[in-house]
């Protein structure tokens, strides 16, 4: 049996640019992809008060409004939908700081 060594990875790796988050999400498809939920769930949430605007036969929403609404629905806990360009370590630190603050407030 002959062992063939794997080629060494090239030092010249191409960075794939992260997609910029759109300012306005147009249509149920984009809104549901942003939320990470099926279209039917996004439509149900809209009936329950999720901020969407109807423009003719289309619906639109902004990521900021959706994140604020999700935070309110989560009981005021800070919430943010992860995107490819999001700094997940910073989001984790922010969430842990919130939990610590809440726990200190409850002990008093």
How would you describe the overall organization of this protein?
This protein is mainly alpha-helical and 108 residues long. The chain has one domain: Arc Repressor Mutant, subunit A. It contains four helices and three strands; from the N terminus they run E-H-H-E-E-H-H. A three-stranded antiparallel β-sheet has the order 1-3-2. Strand 2 (53-55) and strand 3 (58-61) form a beta hairpin. The chain is elongated. The mean pLDDT is 75.
Short note summarizing the structure:
45% of the residues lie in helices and 8% in strands. The chain is mainly α. The chain has one domain: Arc Repressor Mutant, subunit A (Orthogonal Bundle), CATH 1.10.10.
Tag the structure with descriptive keywords.
108 residues, mainly alpha, Arc Repressor Mutant, subunit A, 45% helix
Shape: elongated
Strand percentage lies at 5-15%
Count of distinct strands: 3
Distance N to C terminus: 70 Å
Number of helices: 4
> What ranges have pLDDT less than 50 throughout 5 or more consecutive residues?
none
Query: The CATH topology is what?
Result: Arc Repressor Mutant, subunit A
Question: Could you say how many structural domains there are in total?
Answer: 1
